[in-house]
Amino acid sequence: MNDLFVGSEVGQLRQVIVHRPGTELLRLTPETKEDLLFDDLLWVRRAQEEHDQFSAALESAGVEVLHLDALLRETLAVPEAKDFILDHTFDERLHGPAAAPLLRQVASELDDAALAELVIGGLTKRELLELTDEPRSIVLHSMAADDLVVAPLPNHLFARDASCWVYDGVAVNSMQKPARMREAVTYEATYRWHPRFAEVPFHRWADGLTDAQATVEGGDVLVIGNGAVLIGMSERTTPQGVERIAKRLFASGSADRVVALDLPKARSFMHLDTVMTMVDERSFIEYAGLGDLASYTITPRSGTGGSPQEVELNIADHDPGHAHRAIAEALGLHGLRILTAEQDLHSAAREQWDDGCNALAVAPGAVITYDRTPTSNAFLRESGVEVIEVPGGELGRGRGGPRCMSCPTLRDPVS
């Protein structure tokens, strides 16, 4: 097996990238939170404590935990990587031609740890003026002292979305919302230049710097195994993005089937993994309010191999209500076990909003979930699934659960 390989959703999880909350979440205010895609302000110290317990639960399950900020610091030690990060952080179209060169120069003189903090945590005008005199720039002069010169990346907390590994390759994703677009830069630099990744061959399924409107986000991508991938077409992932990633997977022979589900385009259904995740080889926990979805099975028209340009797609659509059958066929199964707790409409909606369906499998039939979804957790246990609860009182207010907060880089396949 490749040193970087994710062969399933539920096989033994061996290595994962996470990001511990930091300065970037302190930038959230009642005025900025919506632009930064948060519904509420998190108590950062408590969120950090909860995230530490999440990391500890992963390590107790035998998972090697890699921290994104540490990976970025180590990546910045490579001169080419540092130039790449600086070039994609400071742009005269954003900062103006008068300020951009100075900002880049100031940032280039920071040590690797301080620069990594700036890239993820952002920079205010007040903080900039502690490093240099104010340049003659209309852009900067028109800013108040605590305005952000460099926007923070608080959604790096949800490590799954901007980067997701699918079999023997990775998608560095083109993100749908402006607040998340620069997250791709962090992962792109890390995968190109960090020694842990640069010395290992792997395929590229998406390019967050060039794919533009063909967006795919990792919360919509489930590596269900048997050469199949399940992708939700949500408010964040487009059909164009699904077709492009399918062609790349088929061209390399890494997958031979993609099942696409047409999700409601709503905040509460942000990604597929907010309403449906896999917990063992044939079982999914699913939100009761999901309803009947249209689905499409994409296969290569003439086998796999060659270049993506040479691959032609065969697309079969399924009547609403047949999505489960399409997934089962992709897995080579006669049927699926769909786990949906019986509860009233209001309770089900609250649990789904609190990420009751966002379970992270660490092994077949063993999942990490938030403690704030007791009904879903109890139902999983009654169904024979081992549930490892972690606190989500603060983390859960960010609208992302354990699966959202993890980017597996090494996971076993299942038979």
UniProtKB/TrEMBL annotation:
Transmembrane domains' residue ranges: none
Statement: the UniProt record of this protein carries the keyword Cytoplasm: yes
SUPFAM superfamilies from the UniProt entry: Pentein
Gene Ontology CC annotations of this record: cytoplasm
Functional pathway: Amino-acid degradation; L-arginine degradation via ADI pathway; carbamoyl phosphate from L-arginine: step 1/2
Catalyzed reactions: L-arginine + H2O = L-citrulline + NH4(+)
Location in or out of the cell: Cytoplasm
One example GO MF annotation: arginine deiminase activity
EC number: 3.5.3.6
Entry's Gene Ontology BP terms: L-arginine deiminase pathway
A Pfam family annotated for this UniProt entry: ADI
Active site annotation, chain numbering: C404
Keywords: Arginine metabolism, Cytoplasm, Hydrolase
Superkingdom to which the source organism belongs: Bacteria
NCBIfam families: PRK01388.1
Family: Belongs to the arginine deiminase family.
Record's protein name: Arginine deiminase
Species this protein is from: Nesterenkonia salmonea
